[in-house]
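dumping this here before i forget
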Amino acid sequence: MLDLNYVRDNLDAVRSALRDRNFPADSLGRFLELDAERRRVIGEADAINAARNAASKEIGSLMQASKQDEANAKKAEVAGLKEKQAELEAARDAAEAEMHDLLGGLPNLPADDVPVGADESANVEVRRWGSPREFDFEVKDHVDLGEALGILDFERATKIAGSRFAIMNGAGSRLSRALVNFMLDIHTGEHGYVETTPPFLVNRAALFGTNQLPKFEEDLFHIKDDRGFALIPTAEVPVTNYHAGEMLDASDLPKYFAAYTPCFRSEAGSYGRDTRGLIRQHQFEKVELVKLCLPENSEEEHEKLTANAERILQLLGLPYRTVVLSTGDMGFGARKTYDIEVWLPSQQTYREISSCSNCGDFQARRMNTRFKRSGGAKPEFVHTLNGSGLAVGRTWIAVIENCQQADGSVVIPKVLRPYMNGIESIRPD
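structure:
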């Protein structure tokens, strides 16, 4: 959530940033009306409070002078002022609540070095690693490979659950589990993250804290009961909310978390996109990386988090590129995002496998996660960061496609073989 005082004091800059994010800046017109109303009622309430205090002192003097009738008249006047003050305070609370709701619907403001653009065409490539393999045979996609190898079954998944679901079997399932364990081992052993296993159901407060609500209500799978639960769309939600409402000590930061979870998304608005294969599923798996850090360190921590995610692809030997997203392509809560895109031979292009975002204090304000420095300093909001390290299904796709052989088999990357009980390749029966 944006800082109310910053929005008020930098209205033109905020409007400009919202336009860069393809967001209607005219929504701030109502903000100004509410802010003016809030200031008015606070001023009136302060004046009435002063009048009440003065009248109360006068009542005491009248009582001492045995002027009972005048004192009673003053008491009636004070009672009227108290009632009026309560009305003004209710009006203030209503204005502040609407301002809170309005700010809750505004996206984060982009960092100064984010490229300005309307959509993904304005994204800027910052680096590449590895070279796409040159094949001397006709390349197959992961669907054809997986079905021929007997490790991927869409037909029965559709029978059981519907479209955008898949079943992995045998070595395919083992490969998925190997990727999860490999990612977690690298991130906890090499990169210093603490492994955590969070709830897969969350409440509305947690969803608001990481900005899934109110904007992405339709993208969630809601549980139909009176508790307001939803299945997590990403482990970012429960893990980032771990310290919601808490006051941390500056010496405890940064905090690094790595979590493997299933994720559930309705993919509202994406109908017709990536309908073939595992690219866009209702249920998928990720190893998520989350950081909480001091504000002055968040840019450096963002670079490190992105490098941590890239390291997985390097160890697997999968070519990729990293791009910084433009203002029009960033996620709602991000102030800067790097997308890591892995090479898919069947599509002859790079596809997103991780988004690594610095959210600044945007989520911390929504969650009320703060910290205090030593020496009696006033509380500040932490900065939060998150990224996939990596999306398991898309990594599975990249391994299957990049490591395919002419006979339809798939060579297992050497770093995964210890997790595959020594299996060196997946071969047709």
